């Protein structure tokens, strides 16, 4: 089980990078989404970006994440990625809990972008490129 509080500093640094004003941990993201009339675009994703009137962008994050849940996000990414790139080993590239969580953050943001939102492969491509340019794969 992954406790998001152990990665809070890393995720808070991403807030500024992606102009997100609030990071809120919730006990169960699925229940939170149901109670707040929010759709979860990918059921395995432990994060949900929401826009609201009092705080422009907030990232809701599941407080306790099962290892399998995070691994399923990366497994789905690997399947989509293999369609256009059979050389890159996504499992090797996203090889730590920290890097996997970092991937989920901009991925959720990419879903809301007008020019690529809804195109899973386009979202994935953009997120991996952003992570490379920000140096996350050099750690």
Secondary structural class: alpha+beta
- Average pLDDT across residues? 88
- Number of H- or I-type helical stretches: 6
Q: In order across it, which strands form the biggest sheet?
A: 2-4-3
Strand content: 5-15%
Q: Helical residue percent?
A: 40-55%
Any idea what the shape is?
A: globular
N- and C-termini, Cα separation:
23 Å
Which sheet architecture does the biggest sheet show?
3 strands, mixed
Low-confidence stretches: none
- Count structural domains: 1
Q: How would you name the oligomeric state of the polypeptide chains in this document?
A: single chain
Could you spell the SSE succession in H and E letters?
Answer: EHEHEEEHHHH
Radius of gyration: 14 Å
What is the count of β-strands? Answer: 5
Note down, in words, how this protein is organized:
The protein is of the alpha+beta class. The chain has one domain. Helices cover 47% and strands 14% of the residues. The chain is built from 6 helices and 5 strands, in the order βαβαβββαααα. It has helices spanning 8-17, 29-35, 67-82, 90-93, 97-110, 120-133, and strands at 2-3, 22-26, 47-51, 57-62, 64-65. The strands form 2 sheets. The protein has a 3-stranded mixed beta sheet. A hairpin with a 5-residue loop joins β3 (47-51) and β4 (57-62). The longest helix has 16 residues, at 67-82. The two termini are 23 Å apart. The mean pLDDT is 88.
